[in-house]
Amino acid sequence: MPKPEPKLITFEIDGREVQAPEGMMLVDAARLGDVEIPFFCYEPKLGAPVGACRMCLVEIEGMPKLQTSCSTPVKDGMVVSTTSERVKQAQNAVVEFLLVNHPLDCPVCDKGGECPLQDISYGWGAGRSRFIEPKRHFEKPVALSPLIAIDRERCILCYRCVRFSQEIAEDYQLVFLERGDHTFVGTHDGHPYVAPFSGNIVELCPVGALTSQAYRFRARPWDIEDAGSICTLCPSQCNVKYTTRDDTRVLRVLARDNQGVDDGWLCDKGRFGYQAIHAPERVTQPLVRDGGALRPVSWERALSEAARALARAGGRSAAIVGGQATNEEGFLVQHLMREVLGSPHVDSRPSGVLDPAQARALARPDLTAAVPDIEWAGAVLVLDTELVDEMPILDLRVRKGVRRNGVRLVVATSRPSSLDPNARAVVRFTPGAGEAFLAALGAALGDGRGLDELAGRAGASPEAVRAAADALRDAGPVVVVWGERLSGGERGRQAVARLLDLARTLELAGTEGAGLLEVPRGTNARGLREVGCLPNLAPGLADAAAAGKSAGEIAAAVPEEISALLLVHADPLSSHPDRGAWERALDRAGSVIAFADFLTPGLEEHATVVFPSESEAEKDGTMTHPDGRVQRVRQAIARPPEVLPNWQVLAELCERIGKPAGVVSGPAVFERIVASVPFYEGLTLAELGGKGVRWQERDGAGRVPESTLPEGGLEEPPPLEAADLRLGTAPSLWSGPVVEHSPILRFLLADQRVELSVEDGERLGVSTGDEVAVTVGGASVRGVARLRSDVPPGSVFLVEGTQSENATALTNGRPRAVKVARAAREVTPA
Length: 830
What we know:
With 830 residues, the protein is of the alpha/beta class. It has 26 helices and 36 strands. The chain has a 7-stranded mixed β-sheet. A 5-stranded mixed β-sheet has the order 2-1-5-3-4, sandwiched between helices. A 5-stranded parallel β-sheet has the order 20-19-18-21-22, covered by helices on one side.
């Protein structure tokens, strides 16, 4: 459904005439007249109000009873009083009633000083209590999960946390148990509340009932400050507030509401992963390999060693840029490679080469959907991505659109998705067969010719493809949320051509609120692409003067054509396909220079120079959201004494090699980017502010290099090769150094699991919990088997990015047939 246009009406509140959008809840409309109405249970993000706390009662002319302003829409001509004697008595009574059982322990309560109940008791309470009987008591505190503690004596039963669990995250774990004054919040059978978004209930709680285990009793509001930035741990780029003490330590992370990005929610990785910033294992000074081991050295020596190695390699250097690099870092890396060293070899995509013409087509402003378009679209197609693991906040946005606005959801993936229960149509296709699925969907949306054959090549059901086409047809604006893995591998170019052909068929370019939205593998993948961190693209998506090698080609070219590797926030052993090729490349490279915050096993073994990286709370720069919103990364705390800004280190390397970059600050690098990227023209840091700016909505958007959508003549997808089991991989939200080095999150750290269908498990003699080995081409990965009824027969799925037994050991960018068998027990010698 299209987003409704607001219609202004006029009403009176406490003698003031106020204009507000028709239908806005009275409690919100009152603020437009500078009138504050107290409440506890109301939270617009949670959807339809429930009027549970009764704190927001007001008097409305013509209505005999007091009304809850949180659930009363404002109407033209309405006359409202919030200060009448009836209202004051009701407010006093509600506060007194809430304090009957609430402990008066504000001096020792973790919420003290920032507690709505405390503020409302002072502002709207009677200031006394007539209650002298004993208060109720519960065991306290109780661990609701390893992340959250609950003090049930403080709970005022506002219903916020339960509503979040049931209506926003839709994990349905939190419920009210017992009845009357014995009611409390809990889970079925006392199971821990473990879910990707559970930490949001701590921030939603208006009292001190729900507290963070990591922040509990760590600080008082008058000891701390908040600093705004964005989370750099995944492509969602959620807006956050870092709670800091003495400008040196992050104590917690809160959501900073930006409706265009995150809707005010955070995943638990973004909320609790800050502990890794202060991990003792973090690299906080330069390291150089000396005597076969990495040892701390001065900055002078580290910079000299790195500059000599890169200068010696010259055009035989190559750079791999990880997704957590800022636009400024990416721009300077490609400048260092192309302009200083004369090497065209720079890449930021693990998935393979992206065709330049297709990159420009994907960047077209009329083809790019904004995040809010998802909830107002007629239909959403989620294609080859698992949002809860790859871009978690988008998962909540899709659920919101389906639940509130009736968006038709189509899920088309190889692996079962958490969004399947919400979908109008679900299609499963063979891992790596996204191109064939898109061809089949295009046929179903057209005259249906060849549909059965194309669906067979995708390993999909023709009936499921038809159902998906029916859901998309005539739905209104369609948003296609697609995963980067679709564009990877040998057939990546053909798959993207099919995606663009689908965009033409659905008329996305000519429809407001429709478009494509990529879910990249790296946080800042779009920004790095636009500033030139691809082998065939210069800044501004222009063709590179000389095409370089992709990441996979770089690995294969060491040491014959490439002798020095620069790894910027990247560890290809854990993130890139064909781990074996990268192990050989790192072993044979003359020099491996890395920017890293933690020493991974690969860096510890192969790096010759390691520069310490800034944490996400110490960076200052910009990143570009997948929907084109350029946002600021703001420094919240001071860097450790021996950590320098990464842009400064890159600029210093240019200087020492003999070709200065000509920048003296981070903002100066951003000015260089704006001058080099035509569609960023005129963009300033002041304009970005705290919410960011979508460059597609500015005047410079018309300067994107021209591109056209394919008009027929597409290659036919190849038929499926015969295979007993085909390998698919899936990233996990809980893999990576941040989870590994955050003590409170470590219990969630992803281990390798092998997902199979029940039919394949029975055929292979494998049961859930068995240790199995997945083998192909002499390489093997072990994991614990998990049989799932919704996994299609013939497919097996492994987890990417695990500490050990990483799926990248078996992947090479092409569909692969694998064997699965119960693993032989390893016998330890006596």
